[in-house]
Amino acid sequence: MLKAYVQKGRLEAGCDEAGRGCLAGPVFAAAVILPNNYRNKWLNDSKQIKVALRNELREEIQEKALAWAVASCSPEEIDKINILNASIQAMHRSLDQLDPKAAFILVDGNRFKPYHDIPFETFVKGDGRFLSIAAASILAKTYRDDYMETIHEEHPEFDWKVNKGYPTVHHRKTLIANGPTPYHRKSFRLKELQQIQLPL
């Protein structure tokens, strides 16, 4: 069972992102404040959970959370400020929407920038350690997946409904053959990628 909080009785927001390693699409982030007494044995790092359960957990998180929010940064923003800064910016945007506001922030990973004057702590593999970060990972992942399935209809050749913008062999082969779309992150070494010889 994941930990429910760092300090009992405090409004703690868990933050996580999804899509950082993708070639296409926005990076999404979520912030979630759960009640201190919330428990769920199924809640874990979103990458460890099958799609159907992730979607079930999203509904429960949205129903049971004291506050939750999802935000994103576009491919253009990623190209302008880089993926790390865009991931943090998306987290800040999700925190902006919380009501009530957090008194403390738990962040998955090891990099973050101060958010106003609210104290924070980073946790490597935090989505497998704390319920609130795991909940944020579920929301960020499911909302981003929904978005990628929507834009798949505009460019079905890239098969984003399956790969969600990650650099699979099919995605890279199609990128080499067709060139980038407006949804691709131009700063992600696409020119170098186009020169790589991929397996047939």
Explain the overall architecture.
With 200 residues, the chain is an alpha/beta fold. The protein has one domain (12-152): 2-Layer Sandwich (Nucleotidyltransferase, domain 5). It is built from seven helices and five strands. The protein has helices at residues 51-64, 75-81, 83-96, 131-152, 160-163, 169-178, 190-194; strands spanning 12-18, 27-33, 67-73, 104-108, 120-123. Strand 1 (12-18) and strand 2 form a beta hairpin.
Layout of secondary structure:
Elements: E1 12-18, E2 27-33, H1 51-64, E3 67-73, H2 75-81, H3 83-96, E4 104-108, E5 120-123, H4 131-152, H5 160-163, H6 169-178, H7 190-194
Parallel strand pairs: 1-4, 4-5
Antiparallel strand pairs: 1-2, 2-3
Helix pairs in contact: 1-4, 2-3
**Beta-strand level of the residues, as a percent range?**
15-25%
Shape: globular
Series of secondary-structure elements, N-terminal to C-terminal: EEHEHHEEHHHH
Tally of individual helices: 7
Major sheet summary line: 5 strands, mixed
* Radius of gyration computed on alpha carbons: 17 Å
Strand ordering within the main sheet: 3-2-1-4-5
